[in-house]
Design a protein that fits this description.
The complex is a heterodimer of chains A (346) and B (203).
Chain A: H1 20-24, E1 42-43, H2 63-76, E2 81-83, H3 88-105, E3 110-115, E4 118-123, E5 128-133, H4 144-149, E6 155-162, E7 165-172, H5 181-184, H6 189-192, H7 204-213, E8 221-230, H8 241-244, H9 256-259, E9 260-271, E10 278-288, H10 289-292, H11 296-308, H12 311-316, H13 323-331
Antiparallel strand pairs in A: 1-8, 2-7, 3-4, 4-5, 6-7, 6-10, 8-9, 9-10
Helix pairs in contact in A: 11-13
Chain B: E1 26-32, H1 35-43, E2 54-59, H2 68-73, E3 78-81, H3 85-97, E4 103-109, H4 111-123, E5 131-135, E6 141-145, E7 151-155, E8 157-158, E9 160-161, E10 168-176, E11 181-186, E12 199-200
Parallel strand pairs in B: 1-2, 1-4, 2-3, 4-5, 6-11
Antiparallel strand pairs in B: 6-7, 8-12, 9-10, 10-11
Helix pairs in contact in B: 3-4
The chains are: A alpha+beta (346), B alpha/beta (203).
The complex binds protoporphyrin IX containing FE (HEM).
């Protein structure tokens, strides 16, 4: 399998786009014509070769460019990556999980050679060749969590488990849907979810936490979340909201297909072996509406979902002011025909 | 001034109670402004001799001399009246450093004061179960600007202007214990220049 890594940007001139193959494998998040919060978790099992669910950590054509974007975000704001002192061991657990999975599942791209604690990591797409001593921080250029997540697509929250709760005590967060690691670090599951409308009252967080506390090593789980983003911005952080918020004004019926993106997060949950921490990778996939409607089922369905989405959700997700325009544009792709169940294209 | 009754709020915001005397080898009471009244009310039901083992750290702010005399009349072992929280901080840290098992901590007054002192106490290893809080007086908020990270104290209006970067920010209910502050986010991010009239939401 070869991946043609695209040279593209997620800022300034926004040259990001998806190849036809990437469109086909996009994780469309709606299995029916409407959407409401639910405890939507399932085992993170390998499934549908070629899909984003096949591998433990999906690597796609945007990998190299996404890692360049992350490096830029971190250069501007080092607070996007933080780890409280007791989380270093969890960082090593995470490094091991990622290196072992990637070397096994993408042998053409990554190699890991282990001789006791002497490790040798080769990351071909990024041109990295690193020898280091496992569990010895001084032998890596960054802490273990930062080192490996600078080489892995998606944000990462690393949760300490104690007092029957999860605590966001470490993370690498540069591609987030408008929340701040620097503000949320140290919070528990209910505290960092505090701003979410409806879901607390629906009992979703109580049930979700119960599930997460019981995730066992070797039995990871996953779920999808989504929002809408104007321009292919990976970094829609609150820190930079005063820079990207204004872009929402630029949306017109003419540029909708190019500028408006469905943003889907593939969220996974892994128990880590030494620290008993839980790691929560949040992988962001972007697709232009113009790309999305090339699958007629998705165009029809997205139109219905966005049209009927409760107002509180559209407000929380930040697209309430643009919703009428988006729905009008999408309506051209909805002929009223029934859609087949499930997320896959027909 | 009676206790403040807050509207139900989101789950990141702490819930405050009513101070009550607890058995302990020593007692540390930290208050600002009307928070003094919570200590005075507490004193009505304290067991005899408790104030012989009590250290009061008090920042009167706008209340000036209103409560200082009555606090001193409680005859605490130590009573410090300081001009600001920042000024009191080295002393507070010194006291917490020396804290032994069995120290009880009582916090009262503004959310900003309680939040910051709570952080110092927990950083010093005092268990949550040994710390009580009671809100009194101003509902003004201590705000962190999410953009420049600067803290603006005693915010009473929404929106308000960040004391550091000058952006106009709206006041969120999302609260961080680690920063002991609420979050402020640029109010005119989507339409620069369109800043609503500030409304006094907190007094
Ligand atoms: C432990 C792993 C998890 C982490 C670190 C996490 C983190 C977050 C964060 C930071 C937010 C944004 C809150 C804000 O507005 O500031 C959020 C939103 C949300 N989370 Fe989680 N979450 C986790 C697990 C879950 C699970 C298992 C569920 C299951 C139902 C869930 C449901 C939601 C929902 C519904 C939202 C609102 C999303 C939207 O409308 O766009 N989360 N989460």
């Amino acid at each position: 399998m070869t991946i043609n890594f695209r040279d593209e940007t997620f800022r300034d001139d926004f040259t990001f786009r998806n190849s036809p193959e990437a469109i086909k494998r996009f994780p469309f998040p709606f299995h029916e014509d409407s959407y409401m919060y639910s405890v939507n978790m399932e085992p993170h099992k390998s499934y549908r070769p070629g899909s984003v669910y096949e591998r433990t950590f999906d690597v796609d054509e945007h990998y190299v460019s996404e890692m360049k974007d992350r490096a830029k975000v971190l250069a501007e704001d080092p607070l996007r990556c933080q780890s409280l002192p007791h989380m270093t061991l969890a960082g090593w657990d995470l490094l091991e999980l990622i290196m072992v999975s990637k070397a096994e599942e993408y042998p053409d791209l990554f190699e890991l050679h282990r001789d006791g604690n002497k490790w040798h990591w080769i990351n071909k797409p990024l041109g990295i060749d690193q020898k280091f001593v496992f569990l010895d921080e001084a032998t890596l250029p960054y802490g273990p969590m930062e080192y490996i997540t600078r080489q892995t697509q998606g944000d990462f929250a690393v949760l300490d488990q104690r007092d029957d709760n999860l605590w966001m005590d470490a993370g690498m967060v540069t591609t987030q849907a408008d929340w701040s690691l620097d503000f949320d670090i140290g919070m528990n599951f209910f505290e960092w979810h505090a701003p979410v409308p409806k879901a607390h009252e629906m009992g979703i967080f109580v049930r979700a936490l119960k599930f997460l506390l019981n995730v066992r090593q070797g039995a990871p789980a996953r779920r999808l979340n989504w929002t809408m983003t104007v321009n292919p911005l990976l970094d829609t952080s609150p820190e930079n909201y005063h820079k990207w918020g204004v872009m929402k004004q630029d949306l017109t019926m003419e540029n909708m297909g190019e500028k408006m993106h469905l943003r889907v997060e593939l969220q996974t949950f892994f128990r880590l072996p030494r620290s008993n921490a839980l790691v929560f990778p949040i992988r962001c996939y972007l697709i232009k509406l113009g790309e999305l409607v090339t699958e007629p089922k998705w165009g029809r369905r997205l139109h219905r979902v966005l049209r009927d989405l409760p107002e509180e959700l559209a407000t929380y997700k930040g697209f309430i002011s643009n919703r009428p325009k988006i729905v009008e544009w999408l309506s051209k792709y909805d002929d009223g025909k029934p859609t087949s169940p499930g997320i896959w294209p027909d | 001034m009676p206790k403040t009754a807050f509207e139900p709020s989101i789950k990141s915001r702490p819930i405050y109670g009513t101070l009550e005397p607890r058995p302990g080898k020593s007692h540390l009471m930290i208050a600002d402004a009307e928070g003094a009244e919570a200590i005075l009310d507490l004193a009505k039901s304290t067991p005899k001799g408790m104030f012989d083992h009590t250290h009061i750290i008090y920042i009167p702010k706008k209340t000036g001399e209103t409560f200082t005399g009555r606090l001193r009349e409680l005859n605490p072992a130590q009573c410090y009246v300081g001009p600001s929280y920042e000024a009191a901080l080295p002393r507070l840290r010194r006291v917490l450093n020396d804290a032994h098992m069995g120290l009880q901590v009582y916090l009262s007054g503004s959310e900003g004061l309680m939040g910051q002192a709570m952080l110092e106490a927990t950083n010093a290893g005092i268990p949550h179960s040994a710390i009580q809080t009671e809100h009194r007086g101003s509902t003004a908020r201590r705000m962190q600007c999410v953009h420049c990270k600067g803290i603006t104290e005693d915010v009473t209006t929404d929106p308000f202007q960040c004391a550091h970067c000058g952006l106009h920010l709206f006041v969120r209910d999302h609260y961080s214990r680690r920063i002991a502050a609420f979050q402020g986010v640029r109010v005119d991010a989507e339409e620069p220049g369109n800043v609503p009239e500030p409304v006094e939401r907190f007094k």
